[in-house]
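so my prof wants the structure for this chain in the tokens format not the other one, which i didnt know existed until like an hour ago. anyway here's the sequence
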Amino acid sequence: MTIRVAISMGDPSGIGAEVTCKALAGFRPRQLVPYVYGDRRVLTRAAVRFGLSLPMVTMGEPLPARGALVAVTHLPPAAAKPGKPAPAGGRAQLAYLEAAFAAVGAGSADALCTAPISKAQVQRALPDFAGHTEWLEEKSGAESSVMMLAGSRLRVALVTNHLALSAVRAAVTPARIVETVRVTHQALRSDFGLRAPRIALCAMNPHAGEGGAFGDDEARVLQPALVRLRRSGIRVGGPFPADSIFFRAARGEFDAVVALYHDQGLIPVKLIDALMADPAVNVTLGLPIVRTSPDHGVAYDLAGRGKASDSSMRAALAMATEHAARRRAGLRRSRALQRR
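here's what i got, hopefully its the right format
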């Protein structure tokens, strides 16, 4: 089974081209056919440096069957200096994302993998840009989407993403929890291949509120959501104190944890990543397309030095390939059943 993955290069002044070319040169799932959308000069330089042999084509030209580097822009050197972001680079990042997303939408690719972008730089071209997750949800027409960080030991989905801590409490509602867990449950089945996923819900307060001593969010907001979810047949436990549930999940007691806010969920994932060399992948659940991304930023301090690790990008490419293959197999099974 051949899986074509459209890859957006990300920030031309960051490490996106480096980790992408490193990953594709040193590791590639056998069925993966990559199409990397980015800047001609930046991709050529990275491909030569890290030994990646893929043809270069210009945007709009036919895509070679074995993969290609696709030149969306040809930026002047000043607009793509390593570690020195420029306004033109902000516009370019958005152009690479749009081109890669369009390839999936047109059927030229089966999945999307996005290298890191700088939200601040993209916002110069698109002021209301909140991030990949929100942009993809709007562009794909998905009813809702969920950000998940997934490694081999721990998978964590978020009820709220990039939100000030002071705004989290009002944003965490029973309906939002129900939708997050529902989307997570479905993705664990369809994309991760788990027949009966076990999900844990994080509490909001220390010690899950300690019977109301430290807040009533657990009884007032979380428990009603859990009742609705269990009635629908979803296996979800909680609310569990955040200081212990991630350890239990990492040991295999749960298939995923649903955290209520960004740092509650991402700190344990990134700690395991750093200490145990277990690279996490940012995967967007609930979209009509498969989308993954490495779990790190543009790393301007490392750009151009050749020292950035490609482990998370390798994991992101592998997950994109695996999930797209599962979706295709599921579609074939569904069509076969319909013909009976």
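also thought this was worth mentioning. DSSP finds eleven helices and twelve strands in the chain.
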